Amino acid sequence: MSHKSPAELRSEAQAALAEFRGLEKIRARDRLALPQQEMPAQDPIVRAGNMHEVTHGYFEEQARVEAERCLQCKNAPCVEGCPVRIDIPRFIGHIAEGDYAASLSVIREASLLPSICGRVCPQENQCQEYCTVGKSLKDIFKSVSIGRLERFAADRGAAIDASGATPLKGSVSRTVPEVKPATGKKVAVVGSGPAGITVAADVRREGHEVTIFEAFHKPGGVMVYGIPEFRLPKKIVEDELHTLEEMGVEIHTNFLVGRTRKLKDLIEKDGYDAVFIGTGAGLPRFMHIDGENFVGVFSANEFLTRSNLMKAYDRDRSDTPMPIPERVAVFGGGNVAMDAARTAIRIGSKKVSIIYRRSRVEMPARAEEVGHAEEEGVEFLLLKSPTRILGDENQTVIGIEVLDYELGEPDDSGRRRPVPIPGSESVIDLDTVIVAIGNDSNPLITRTTPELKANKWGNILTDEFGKTSMDKVYAGGDIVLGAATVILAMGEGRKAAASINRMLRGEADPVTEA
User: Fold this and answer.
1) Residue 355 phi, psi (nearest 5)
2) Is the domain 6-163 a CATH 3.10.450.50 member?
3) If you write DSSP's letter for every residue of 43-104 in order, what string do you get?
4) pLDDT at position 136 over 90
5) Helices and strands (H and E) in the chain: how many
């Protein structure tokens, strides 16, 4: 990755914009010739020592150039790739015109979380994968930077709110969504992650009373406990939750449905007319190898929750600081593995290694996150997998044994299957292991509610509208999909909310083709 200074990036964008606007007639090829705008970011050496957000967001000039790259396709293939179906060409068109209030208003028609999705969603595998610009240039990584433009519109709106100023055109951008007159109906939302937030907003808009029940002491779900501050500042999540509260949604924390209150009791005793379950996938997976119970072995969930939710990285002020590991191995190749490795770097670890049994091409993490991790000093030990964790006489981690792999034929996922190389074992000295190989669905509600059907992995079974096997009970997000993304969870929440609203109006779900 190149790292031009902010001044250079802004100057180049100004020049490109001036030249583009000087054209007598703008053709599609002129838009394709515009350079994709690089995201301004902290210097890697500097950011590896702090928890501040890595990227700064586009300058206004950059956003205008990037927006002009959009071809405004009539068939809008990018919208098909968006789980919540934001009208992408329309919001980008408003940015090109300088009407940032209108741009954010378009996004908010479909999404309550643009500041969040613009930062953490894998747009390259969703809307940007379908972008005509990327296909025309034969490189999806050169598609219009839809996610960065979404973040720009949202951040611009937040800046306007803070200053009290008005944008270049239109009205002030951040408004509390309108709520219809009270219906007398009550809806409980279990979990305050992206699916729960989406359902709460869409149901509350219709005038129904909404209460969110959150097990932790802070709402926000995975966006608060799972995603590090340097990727998603918690103030942004707090602002989005504040919008819900301004709409009249009540949020109860330290409330564990299944223990504090049974699911059936919410309906039968507390009078809720519908319940949505969005408790996520919070049960960490382990490899079931020798030594996983040693001191110094963490699940990525525990490690990141300690850092993100309990501020363990702030050793001088945290009530629950973590010991600083010197040599760390992170098992896994997804975004959570990158988050754990980059957090370890920031809390002072001297050496951090990612252990992954395939090559970098097969790594499921976002390319941007892998690149950022590499720049910050994370070592990648590819085509290796741990066979056992080594400990001393006190059962404290002192190292791991790994086996080398080579790639064979593709498996069911389409990725080349890792094949072990017999006799290739070697030992790596270290003191901390973080297991980041995935999560399963939280089992508490299904175990305490026998009427709720789930599959063998513990995911709640629903129909296409989010209805579960229990009357008046809906579910969505990771508890249904397994570990997924923020935007996919929002898409599931949106479908379930629409079905809940129809049910509360006495209407049936639409009939779809088999």
Assistant:
1) -105, 115
2) no
3) -HHHHTT--S-SB----HHHHHHHHHT----TT-HHHHT-TT---HHHHHHHHHHT-HHHHH
4) yes
5) 20, 16
Report the candidate in 35, 162, 53, 73 with the shortest Cα–Cα distance to residue 116: 53
Helices (H), 399-485: 444-448, 478-481
pTM of the predicted protein model: 0.90
The answer to whether the beta carbons of residues 350 and 454 sit under 8 Å apart is no
Give the total residue count for the chain: 514
- Residue from 144, 149, 125 nearest 134 by CA: 144
- pLDDT tens digits along 197-221: 999 999 999 999 999 999 999 999 9
CB atoms within 10 A of CB 314: 13
Q: What pLDDT digit, counting tens, does each position of 93-104 carry? A: 999 999 998 999
Q: Rounded to the nearest 10 degrees, what angle do helices 6-21 and 60-68 cross at?
A: 40
| Matching CATH number, 286-437, of 3.40.50.10490, 3.40.190.10, 3.50.50.60, 3.40.50.300 | 3.50.50.60
Fold that domain 186-282+441-505 belongs to in CATH:
FAD/NAD(P)-binding domain (3.50.50)
Q: How far apart are CA 248 and CA 245, in angstroms?
A: 5
